[in-house]
């Protein structure tokens, strides 16, 4: 355990993450700190093609650096690019007598590639400097077409660091990235330790009020719902910046990316990776946000959020409330009022009605 804590501390202190990529472009290993820079969880990328993460204009450069002589086999004209071909077809198998010694400077690598980044809403990519070397990856027990065991093959062992040094603010917020788990309707199920520090709730307090939208600022609900619908269709929400209600009745800006987790081919739950923002960052995102209805009631998507209340003449959202509650946690006492008005408490309108007026 002591060794694990030491390695974890070293990775956190490192301005970057560790990446091991096989000769055919499979990510054999990534340190968990990849999430701090690209937004992907370690399990999202392990054993996946690295070319799925790399900008199309940089894929050839990355493939060159996987070859010991920087000269990978050329793709004949008219055939798919290396990233689009099967991984096995782009692999290069070496005999040990064809390679320079493992400590040779020919195997050292230092190059720049742009990687997909869920934490960057400007270009969607982050330029990384990969510095390391090609080394033999042992214990793979791969076999050739005739069934014979192949010798260990070269893989890229590299430290990936952002090309632009991080600001003090980025360093501070990087260490507070947290994850939450939700049902498919966004009802909270679990929250990690950092999330409990940022938001102030216990898991029991997050679960007891039902819909997760009750913790979302009313002005951000339709925006979050739009990305919720996108995630249900595509598996990923994309970058979403909104305000969450903390236990001390304050609004905390977060930058989030949600993805579906599947079991037996069916979506089972949602995992959300969230990074706290300062108010100035959140306000800037709000000014840039396009102010349009994210969906029309004609498409039927809106019925996911409210199917029983007529559109004309929305009631005063807080007409069910008496004096503002002094409780420091979201009030759950207005479910009955919502149901009497014919409003589904799980809908967006129901979530707003159940919020304490005092928080606004």
UniProtKB/TrEMBL annotation:
SUPFAM superfamilies: PYP-like sensor domain (PAS domain) (SSF55785). It holds the Pfam family PAS_3. One of its GO terms (biological process) is xenobiotic metabolic process. It is found in: Nucleus. Its main location: nucleus. GO terms for cellular component: aryl hydrocarbon receptor complex; nucleus. Keywords: Activator, DNA-binding, Nucleus, Transcription, Transcription regulation. It comes from the Eukaryota. Residues 7-73 form the PAS domain. The keyword NADP does not apply. GO terms for molecular function: nuclear receptor activity; transcription cis-regulatory region binding. The keyword Lyase does not apply. This is AHR protein. It comes from Urocynchramus pylzowi. The lineage of its organism: Eukaryota, Metazoa, Chordata, Craniata, Vertebrata.
């Amino acid at each position: 355990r002591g060794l694990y804590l030491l390695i974890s501390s070293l990775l956190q202190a490192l301005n970057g993450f560790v990446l091991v990529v096989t000769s055919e472009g499979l990510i054999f290993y990534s340190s968990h700190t990849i999430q701090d820079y690209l937004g992907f969880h370690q399990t999202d990328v392990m054993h996946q093609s690295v070319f799925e993460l790399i900008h199309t204009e940089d894929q050839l450069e990355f493939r060159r650096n996987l070859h010991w002589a920087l000269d990978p086999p050329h793709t004949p004209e008219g055939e798919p690019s290396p990233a689009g071909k099967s991984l096995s077809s782009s692999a290069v198998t070496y005999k040990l007598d064809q390679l320079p010694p493992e400590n040779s400077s020919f195997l050292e690598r230092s190059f720049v590639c742009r990687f997909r980044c869920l934490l960057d809403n400007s270009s969607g990519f982050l330029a990384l400097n990969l510095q390391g070397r090609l080394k033999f990856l042992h214990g793979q027990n791969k076999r050739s077409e005739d069934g014979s065991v192949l010798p260990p093959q070269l893989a890229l062992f590299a430290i990936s660091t952002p090309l632009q040094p991080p600001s003090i603010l980025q360093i501070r917020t990087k260490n507070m990235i947290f994850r939450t788990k939700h049902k498919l309707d966004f009802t909270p199920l679990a929250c990690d330790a950092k999330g409990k520090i940022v938001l102030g709730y216990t898991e029991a307090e997050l679960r007891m009020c039902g819909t997760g939208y009750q913790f979302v600022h009313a002005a951000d609900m339709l925006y979050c719902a739009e990305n919720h619908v996108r995630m249900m269709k595509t598996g990923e929400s994309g970058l979403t910046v909104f305000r969450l209600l903390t236990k001390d009745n304050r609004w905390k800006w977060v930058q989030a990316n949600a993805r579906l987790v599947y079991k037996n081919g069916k979506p089972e739950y949602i995992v959300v990776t969230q990074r706290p923002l300062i108010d100035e960052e959140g306000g800037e995102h709000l000014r840039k946000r396009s102010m349009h209805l994210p969906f029309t009631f004609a498409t039927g998507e809106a019925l996911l959020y409210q199917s029983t209340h007529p559109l004309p003449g929305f009631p005063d959202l807080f007409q069910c409330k008496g004096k503002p509650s002094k409780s420091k946690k979201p009030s759950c006492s207005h479910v009955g009022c919502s149901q009497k008005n014919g409003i589904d408490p799980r809908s967006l309108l129901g979530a707003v009605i159940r919020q304490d007026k005092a928080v606004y």
